[in-house]
């Protein structure tokens, strides 16, 4: 197959194979990737202008984490700069004495005091550097912890609507790296500060020695700064081009060896096809690397040439000053030293600012996320709920999912009026997508009705003004997709009431209530068995067994209202009815309010009250007998739709949405990934996982093999 490549921004070295297989470059569509190349658009001046702001951010974070360590870093770095300047002046004194008239002995003796100062400043410089290094090392993990704690603390309190908002999630993706970036920013800030102070010290000494020396320093260092910046940009471009090809190649490698694809690879003879493209992409990548390496070499040469000319001009100017007697030899010697120190400080300053700038993009995201999370937090405080609740009443409640359905989103619930009397068993029945789960989320306080869209009253207290934490505390929710915590059986049940110490007896009682005691009996380490596959000692339980654990969790919570949202979707009609009957019987003994959700009316025929939902509205309400009665019922609930088979096929829109959203959110959304989050975080934002979900293979922008 012939292999053509294109170059240019966004498609550097893109091969026909990549175009054919992926329709373009294989880039992630996740939060942190959107900063790719942002700093490439920055020039020297813009970077310099932004420097105080960047250092300010680092200093603020460090101050929050450990003000004392910050003071040590700042004090050490500033003192180091001063001692460097004093050292340079002392060097000037040494040279002055050495180059004066007299015998060698006399000249050496004269230089001794200045030499002692040089030695002392060097010693002090070393001590200060180690103090700064130690304090920076102390600061880094603290900054990361403070930053991580802050965003996690804010994010877990935001409204559910924010969690479901894709834009918020993209921000969360990027901000996750912000906490790591904050850590790295501390080191880069210290390095930047260090280089800047060294540069200022050298420039200050030069100005004192002779006013013309400062422009000479600028003249000599500018080309070198330009070349540093240009070369580091080239490295960055090269890295991203490389990682893109490497990712694509890696994907093909995985497809060739993946179990799921194995049958088709053989029967359809996909192997040679993929292998051919793999080779083509690898060759394209190699060509791209060669091209970029040559380009970098050219830029290096140009920069070196410019630096050489500047050096020549600088030393020429120094020579002229000496020749004309405008400068003493000792001053010229010190000037050479100061210019060299200044030039190398400027070089490293450019590199550190570059690093700092890249990190700052993620820290800015982090700050934005924190602001957004604060703004979208579930409000704290509010009207207390009545101690002894009689009912929760929905009055003409309309609810629309934010961002659903384009410009004129359709409400999911329309003018719903119904009651949940306490101490009763209430069933919500309706076909897929009729709004049952949405309705109980409003009941649980996870959403509020639309503005002007009716009220939900807890007796006389409006849910809008109620203390939402109290609302949450009154409800135990076992939703369709309740979370399978990758923890032990004990914690999986007790996490329903995580703010009190775990009571093993209560865990066992809750397990007996839901039938999860049978699951428990089969576990190798009983309550302490880890319910997560893929981990040593981890045990896998079936979907049906998880459902029992979920009911036990909701039961353990001992909340006033127990909402059971289709826990039986994996069961057949008879089994579902058995589970509901069991819940009903047990509820009778505790007086708990139970809200059961199903689309099979017959499964809940013993409920005290049944609300039938249809297209987001209440079609009818009553007891089973009333609904089935030809005179009192509308007959809607007797239609075959409400007696449909379990919803395992076809899934609701809500369910169908999830994979799409998960895919958009990238590789970080599975429970296991959440658990393994620290390992999924790259060493720095420039590091990119080779493959989604790959927690081990990060590519480094300074990675070996690139240069
Ligand atoms: N987070 C969401 N964002 C946008 N739309 C949603 C969301 N969750 C559900 N919907 C939509 O709201 C409608 C009602 O969904 P809901 O899950 O409440 O119905 P349901 O009666 O519980 O259905 P099922 O029996 O299939 O679970 C569906 O059209 C669904 O696609």
From TrEMBL:
Main location: membrane
Region span, Disordered: 630-671
Transmembrane segments: 108-128, 185-206
Biased composition (Basic residues): 654-667
Topology relative to the membrane: Multi-pass membrane protein
Keyword Membrane assigned: yes
Taxonomy, superkingdom: Bacteria
Record carries keyword Nucleotide-binding: yes
Domain ABC transmembrane type-1: 81-358
PROSITE patterns per UniProt: ABC_TM1F, ABC_TRANSPORTER_2
Localisation per UniProt entry: Cell membrane
Domain (ABC transporter): residue spans on this chain: 392-640
Keywords: ATP-binding, Membrane, Nucleotide-binding, Transmembrane, Transmembrane helix
InterPro entries: AAA+_ATPase, ABC1_TM_dom, ABC1_TM_sf, ABC_transporter-like_ATP-bd, P-loop_NTPase, Type_1_exporter
Composition skew (Low complexity), residue ranges: 636-653
UniProt GO molecular function: ATP binding
Protein name per Swiss-Prot or TrEMBL: ABC transporter ATP-binding protein
Organism this protein belongs to: Streptomyces caledonius
Lineage of the organism: Bacteria, Bacillati, Actinomycetota, Actinomycetes, Kitasatosporales
């Amino acid at each position: 197959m012939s292999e053509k490549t294109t170059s240019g921004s966004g498609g550097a070295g893109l091969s026909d194979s990549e175009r054919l297989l992926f329709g373009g470059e294989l880039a992630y569509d996740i939060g942190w990737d959107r900063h790719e190349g942002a700093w490439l658009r920055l020039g020297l001046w813009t970077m310099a202008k932004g420097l105080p702001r960047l250092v300010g951010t680092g200093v603020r974070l460090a101050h929050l984490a450990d003000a004392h360590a910050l003071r040590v870093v700042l004090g050490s770095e500033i003192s180091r700069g001063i001692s460097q300047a004093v050292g340079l002046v002392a060097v000037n004194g040494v040279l002055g004495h050495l180059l004066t008239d007299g015998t060698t002995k006399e000249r050496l003796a004269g230089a001794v005091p200045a030499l002692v100062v040089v030695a002392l400043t060097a010693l002090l410089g070393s001590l200060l550097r180690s103090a700064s290094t130690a304090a920076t090392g102390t600061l880094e993990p603290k900054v990361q912890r403070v930053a991580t704690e802050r965003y996690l603390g804010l994010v877990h309190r935001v409204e559910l609507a924010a969690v479901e908002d894709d834009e918020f999630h993209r921000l969360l993706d990027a901000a996750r790296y912000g906490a790591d970036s904050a850590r790295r920013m501390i080191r880069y800030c210290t390095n930047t500060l260090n280089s800047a102070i060294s540069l200022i010290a050298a420039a200050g000494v030069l100005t004192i020695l002779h006013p013309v020396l400062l422009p000479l320093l600028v003249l000599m260092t500018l080309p070198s700064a330009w070349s540093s910046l240009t070369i580091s940009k080239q490295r960055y471009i090269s890295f991203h081009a490389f990682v893109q090809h490497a990712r694509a190649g890696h994907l093909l490698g995985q497809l060739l060896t993946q179990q799921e694809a194995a049958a088709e690879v053989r029967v359809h003879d996909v192997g040679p096809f993929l292998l051919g493209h793999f080779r083509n992409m690898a060759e394209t990548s190699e060509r791209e690397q060669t091209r970029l390496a040559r380009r970098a070499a050219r830029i290096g040469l140009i920069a070196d040439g410019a630096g050489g000319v500047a050096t020549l001009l600088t030393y020429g100017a120094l020579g002229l000053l000496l020749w004309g007697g405008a400068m003493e030899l000792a001053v010229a010697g010190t000037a050479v030293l100061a210019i060299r120190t200044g030039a190398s400080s400027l070089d490293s300053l450019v590199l550190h600012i570059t690093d700092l700038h890249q990190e700052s993009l993620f820290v800015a995201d982090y700050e934005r996320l924190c602001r957004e999370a604060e703004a979208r937090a579930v409000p704290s405080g509010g009207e207390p709920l009545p101690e002894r609740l009689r009912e929760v009443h929905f009055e003409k409640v309309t609810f629309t999912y934010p961002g659903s359905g384009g410009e004129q989103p359709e409400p999911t619930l329309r003018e719903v009026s119904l009651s949940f009397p306490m101490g009763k068993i209430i069933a919500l029945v309706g076909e897929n997508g009729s709004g049952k789960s949405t309705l109980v989320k409003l009941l649980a306080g996870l959403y509020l009705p639309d503005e002007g869209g009716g009220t939900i009253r807890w007796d006389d207290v409006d849910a809008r003004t109620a203390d939402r934490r109290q609302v949450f505390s009154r409800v135990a929710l076992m939703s369709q997709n309740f979370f399978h915590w990758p923890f032990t059986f004990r914690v999986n049940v007790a996490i329903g009431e995580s703010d009190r110490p775990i009571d093993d007896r209560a865990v066992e009682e809750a397990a007996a209530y839901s039938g999860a005691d049978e699951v428990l009996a089969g576990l190798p380490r009983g309550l302490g068995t880890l319910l997560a596959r893929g981990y040593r000692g981890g045990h896998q339980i079936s979907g049906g067994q998880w459902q029992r654990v979920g009911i036990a969790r909701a039961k353990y919570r001992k909340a006033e209202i127990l909402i059971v949202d289709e826990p039986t979707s994996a069961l057949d009609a008879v089994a579902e009815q058995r589970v509901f009957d069991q819940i009903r019987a047990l509820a009778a003994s505790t007086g708990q309010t139970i809200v059961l959700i199903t689309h099979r009316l017959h499964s809940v025929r013993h409920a005290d009250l049944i609300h039938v939902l249809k297209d987001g509205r209440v079609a009818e309400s009553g007891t089973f007998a009333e609904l089935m009665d030809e005179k009192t019922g509308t007959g809607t609930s007797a239609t075959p739709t409400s007696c449909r088979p379990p919803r395992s096929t076809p899934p609701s829109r809500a369910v169908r949405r999830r994979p799409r959203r998960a895919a958009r959110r990238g590789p970080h959304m599975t429970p296991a990934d959440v658990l393994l989050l620290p390992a999924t975080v790259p060493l720095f934002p420039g590091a990119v996982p080779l493959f989604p979900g790959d927690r081990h293979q990060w590519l480094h922008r300074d990675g070996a093999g690139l240069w």
